[in-house]
Amino acid sequence: MSVDTEEQSRSTSRDEALAELERDWGERPSLRGWFSTVDHKRIGRRYMVTAGIFFILAGTDAMILRTQLARPNATLLSPEMYDQLFTMHGTAMIFLFSTPMFFGFGNFLVPLLIGARDMAFPRLNAFGYWVFVCAGTVMFTSQLVGRAPDGGWFGYVPLTDTPYSTGVNLDVYSLGLLFLGVSTTAGAINFIVTVVKMRAPGMSLNRMPLFVWAIVGTSFMVIFALPALNLANAMLFLDRRFGAHFFDPGHGGSTLLWQHLFWIFGHPDVYIIVMPALGIVSAVLPAFCRRGVVAYPLMVLAIVTISIISFGVWVHHMFATGLPQLSYSFFSAASTLITIPSGIQIFAWLFTMLRGRIVVRTPFLFVVGFIVTFVLGGFTGVMFAITAFDQQVTDSYFVVAHFHYVLFGGAVFPMLAGIYFWLPKFTGRMYAERLSRWAFWLVFLGFNTTFMPMHVSGLLGMPRRIYTYPGGLGWDIWNLISTVGAYILAVGLLLVLIGVVHAVRRGAPAPDDPWQGDTLEWGTTSPPRPYNFAPVPQVHSLHPMWDERTTGALAIDEPLPDHRAMTTSELDGREEGVIEMPEASLLPLAVAAGILVVVLGLLWAWYWTGWYWFAGAGALLIFGAVARWLWPPERTPEEAGVAS
Amino acid sequence: MPTQTRRAGGFLLWFAVLGGALAWTVHLFVAWGVDELTCRAGNTSVGGVPVRGIVGAGVAVPALVTIAALLLAWRGWRRATAAKRDDDSPRMERTGMLLLIGLCADVLFLAIILAGGAAVLVLSPCQ
Fold first, then answer.
1. Interatomic CA distance for residues B57 and B59, integer angstroms
2. Can you tell me the distance from the alpha carbon of A103 to that of A164, in angstroms, rounded to the nearest whole number?
3. pTM over 0.80
4. Cβ B90–A206 below 8 Å, yes or no?
5. Chain B touched by A308 (CB under 8 Å)
């Protein structure tokens, strides 16, 4: 056989293998296929789109709030409506937008970044998404019918407990967050197992991209922090509906218990939101600085130590509650010193820019915007670690300004950087550079115009969560500036949305690696094929796409066949075996629907006591669907691998 | 050299990396918990031992454990760095990186323990 014939024969066999992979991993083009897909890329995109919709809804709430506060003695909103709007704004931005949006990024990117074909538990992944959609829909629907939570996003008792909060509003809050907690926990477990067991051969811990480290750190924080919130919400629901007294001091309960439980979750949650954002920054910078992030081990150190120390700072949210001074000292020390790992990351990024050859594109601009705003938020954060200062500004607009600088600056700017950076990979299309730069400058200007004045109004004594205020207190002008800024910010965000829609519809086709990135996702097509990688990548360094050995390995003509994925060792990424991956299924949707029925049954029982049977019916549906899900597949022992 | 690699890859490696974090966690919950619960109950001692003494021990013992982890991380890191010259396998790279992380983390956690502990000398419990 001649060399040409041999080459042709090899090419044909490769094409056949790829077509087989496409059949094995692609989803059926039908409605059933749409609902039953377990592809991590589809689920990741859905997470992002759904979280984006919730962001628009919660942002609309914010615009109405700011309009109400633009002038003194305004009557656009009643106090009751204002309560519902600010509660839903905060609750949705924290629980229905930030974390799910990063779960979307993680879902789409983590398997690609580690050279895997899917998440470790694809069906659990789909289940988490459907639960998230259902929980978010229940919570926003409650707003449409005027029964939304109205006790603030951190729902302090006794205000939120009976008899101070009647109606179903706070039940929506406690049950909604419990419902959502199922999704977040499932997602976190999935991330950990995926990263620990499914990294490409050769990807030892010291070759793992920083974004992946950040997602793992976040997932561990979720696993340890979320039970405290779930517990608190379950106890609140029992107090409200079944006459328990967990938070009732009159019967031996404790109101401070709520704050402890809430903030044991709540402070790590700040990092649960910010940490993946820091990972995005570390992923974007190398592409636009043409070099890896400096001090990789110190960056990992920062991720690991922040994940741990964030659990020891919750009492700084309670410095005004009258705990013993000695108690404050432990938390003050931890709150001050957590700035060290945060500072390490900031300096590492600055040095990366200093020592790199910078190419200024929109994602890079958003990274710079992030650094400016996040550092400002960090400064005021250090101020809060000082107990005496904290007690002066607690529950004022200074706090509102601080946490928007931390959370908008620390999460939304990197998120926008990530959206522009990975848009070619998400959609296969390029964005329009000029439009996106306009978006950046409007967002940056609008953000600072909105929130900088709140520091002043806070120092002038304006409390948070007041629906209006009398004129002549010195707050008027600062509120007016904030409201004008909010509208500028909204226009900027609208341009982002227009830019994304424009890219999807009319954007130029994206090359596989438009930025010359260093990580494995750029080694796939844009958008990636259903199986991600045909040959399993062999990783030889921290920057696989800048390493000829890895890019060479990607071109090797040995596709791993069938609906299978490879597992590797936890620390060193050594090959261990091949597992069969689960097929698409409607069962995740069925279990999520069962939980939805339970939640609705428990909520409606507020009006019609007999409707607890409805919740029971949902429980039966869950039981049946889970039993079917876990039923052993009909396979030979040789075929059997890890289940879903 | 392989002997050193094995020794640095087991329990001692993880103690060197996470010992400080663990000690700080224990310090935080013991010192804060004892102070908070005892003071809220209106007492100044637990089983006859003054709160200040228990809190002091809750600072000193974790600080010593962190110092032990720090020394171990320092020694392991130097060995791993030396061994890496002869063996540039991913395993040695990974061990060296983890020990460097442990070294820095232990310093940070020791600083938090001492900063929190300094208040024990200044403030009286239940103030």
1. 5
2. 36
3. yes
4. yes
5. yes
